């Protein structure tokens, strides 16, 4: 079986995009893991699968599979690459498309200057919505937010939690370059308080509209950028009274921009989306 693909990246977060519009794509978790391998496969943080919508009022459906072969709910950098892909391939002439994802419908827009803005989600903070079980954890209030004392190794890390279509736990650090992302990221991701696992964000605040960020992504590991992680960090920072919209997010792979008007409002992510190369792989 030969599989055609497009390799794309958004701020260094890289993807293999697969077209399943004409026929369903039925790959096993092991096949996805092999394709994601950077030495023996194509190499990718995630796979973006373009499909037909269930509702004809929408333009496409969209599935995301992580490098470990597990399917996830959302990916902000991937969504930007998605709209660039369908426009470059001539699959639509619309500047804005409505795309079905596992938790609902999102709007993706490519501007005339080539920048791409993604309607991410209305952030949710209730523990049951993450999902998150805070029983037995210490808590403290900061601004309009509740922080939770999460035991991580020998330390207690104070995290804010948010769901942006997928779960996030965000902590503020003094220096993101010195943050123990590789050591503590896996411990937070798999912490028993998060029954569906979680994306672990490490945020350094430069000023009220500028942060630096590293994210250990669920099922992937640390990536050069995480779109929903950027939004999660910003909305948690705004809830805590530390940030104000709009916020520039400096990731290791590039710069993203996040807008959020506050509780109950949609959050938006803007940034680059680039086609790297196209190819065909023998499965």
Based on helices, strands and strand pairing, what is the structural class? alpha+beta
Total separate domains:
2
The 3D shape can be described as: globular
Radius of gyration: 18 Å
Please summarize the sheet with the most strands.
19 strands, mixed
Helix-strand topology string: EEHEEEHEEEEEEEHEEEHEEEE
CATH superfamily of the largest domain: Diaminopimelate Epimerase, Chain A, domain 1
Q: Average the pLDDT over all residues and give the rounded result.
A: 96
How many strand units? 19
- Do you know the CATH topology of the largest domain? Diaminopimelate Epimerase, Chain A, domain 1
What's the number of helices?
A: 4
Oligomeric state of the chains in view = single chain
Low-pLDDT runs: none
Task: Estimate percent helicity.
Answer: 10-25%
What percent of residues are in strands? 35-45%
CATH class of the largest domain: Alpha Beta
Binding site for substrate: 13, 46, 66, 76-77, 166, 199, 217-218, 227-228
Active site: 75, 75 (proton donor), 226 (proton acceptor)
Site (Could be important to modulate the pK values of the two catalytic cysteine residues): 168, 217
Family: Belongs to the diaminopimelate epimerase family.
């Amino acid at each position: 079986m030969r599989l055609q693909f497009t390799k794309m990246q958004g701020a260094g977060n890289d993807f293999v995009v697969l077209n399943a519009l004409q026929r369903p794509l039925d790959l096993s978790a092991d096949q996805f893991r092999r394709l994601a391998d950077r030495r023996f496969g194509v190499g990718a943080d995630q796979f973006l699968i373009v499909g037909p919508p269930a509702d004809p009022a929408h333009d496409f459906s969209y599935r995301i599979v992580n490098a470990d072969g597990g399917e996830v709910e959302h990916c902000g950098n991937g969504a930007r690459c998605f709209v660039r892909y369908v426009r470059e391939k001539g699959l639509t002439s619309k500047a804005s498309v409505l795309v079905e994802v596992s938790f609902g419908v999102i709007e993706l827009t490519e501007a005339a200057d080539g920048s791409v803005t993604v309607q991410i989600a209305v952030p949710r903070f209730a523990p049951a919505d993450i999902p998150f079980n805070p029983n037995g954890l210490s808590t403290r209030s900061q601004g309009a937010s509740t922080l939770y004392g999460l035991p991580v190794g020998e330390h207690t890390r104070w995290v804010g939690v948010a769901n942006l279509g997928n779960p996030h736990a965000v902590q503020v650090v003094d220096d993101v370059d010195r943050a123990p992302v590789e050591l503590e990221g896996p411990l937070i991701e798999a912490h028993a308080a998060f029954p569906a696992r979680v994306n672990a964000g490490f945020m350094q605040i430069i000023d009220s509209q500028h942060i630096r960020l590293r994210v250990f992504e669920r099922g992937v590991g640390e990536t050069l950028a995480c779109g929903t992680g950027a939004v999660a960090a910003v909305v948690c920072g705004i809830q805590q009274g530390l940030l104000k919209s709009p916020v520039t997010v400096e990731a290791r792979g590039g710069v993203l921009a996040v807008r959020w008007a506050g509780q109950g409002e949609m959050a938006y992510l803007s940034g680059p989306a680039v086609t790297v190369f196209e190819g065909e792989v023998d499965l």
